[in-house]
């Protein structure tokens, strides 16, 4: 199995993610350092599922060891890694019924905001937006 450690952003930046690239396992990435971010998705009680926790104040915590597959449609780049990490974690919570499907619009908006913050070009931003809307259109309330 080939493995490459990557770090995005500077270490003191709270948006920094450190992950391992994995090949041949069905997932592409493994988080090497806990990741925390405040979101606009709130739950009445804290929820946890495996390595993912969402707290009532909107804090998303993804623990070391979490594995995800990156962006599904177009090539993974630095500008999509943090966004895909959070999006995959949220989708697991939705799939498990721990947060309502009606939150998918906010989840997708968070994905797009993270892409933009991390330097996605206008064309990549537009492509991501198109495929998110196409894929998740049945999930919007």
Note the run of SSEs as H and E. Answer: EEEEEEEEHHH
Mean pLDDT: 85
Task: Specify the structural class.
Answer: alpha+beta
How many strands appear in the DSSP assignment? 8
Globular, elongated, flat, extended or rod-shaped: what is the shape? globular
Percent of residues in beta strands?
Answer: 15-25%
Low-confidence stretches: none
C-alpha end-to-end distance: 42 Å
Name the strands of the widest sheet in spatial order: 1-2-3-8
- In DSSP terms (H or I, runs of 4 or more residues), the helix count works out at 3
Radius of gyration, Cα only, in angstroms?
14 Å
Description:
This protein has one domain (3-139). It has helices at 78-95, 104-117, 122-136; strands at 3-8, 17-22, 29-31, 35-38, 47-49, 52-54, 59-62, 67-68. A hairpin with a 2-residue loop joins β5 and β6 (52-54). The strands form two sheets. The protein has a four-stranded antiparallel sheet, with helices on one face. A four-stranded antiparallel sheet has the order 4-7-6-5, with helices on one face. It is globular, with a radius of gyration of 14 Å. It has 141 residues and is of the alpha+beta class. The chain is built from three helices and eight strands; from the N terminus they run ββββββββααα.
Can I get a quick summary?
This protein is of the alpha+beta class. The protein is built from three helices and eight strands.
Question: Secondary-structure map with pairings?
Answer:
Blueprint: E1 3-8, E2 17-22, E3 29-31, E4 35-38, E5 47-49, E6 52-54, E7 59-62, E8 67-68, H1 78-95, H2 104-117, H3 122-136
């Amino acid at each position: 199995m080939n493995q490459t450690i990557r770090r995005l952003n500077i270490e003191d930046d709270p948006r920094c993610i450190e992950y391992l690239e994995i090949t041949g396992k069905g997932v592409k990435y493994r988080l090497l350092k806990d990741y925390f971010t405040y979101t606009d998705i709130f739950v009445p009680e804290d929820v946890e599922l495996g390595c993912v926790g969402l707290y009532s104040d909107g804090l998303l915590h993804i623990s070391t060891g979490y594995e995800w597959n990156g962006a599904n449609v177009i090539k993974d780049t630095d500008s999509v890694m943090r966004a895909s990490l959070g999006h995959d974690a949220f989708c697991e919570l939705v799939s498990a019924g721990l947060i309502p499907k009606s939150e998918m619009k906010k989840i997708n908006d968070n994905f797009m905001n993270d892409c933009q913050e991390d330097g996605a070009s206008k064309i990549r931003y537009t492509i991501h937006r198109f495929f998110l809307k196409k894929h998740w259109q049945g999930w919007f309330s």
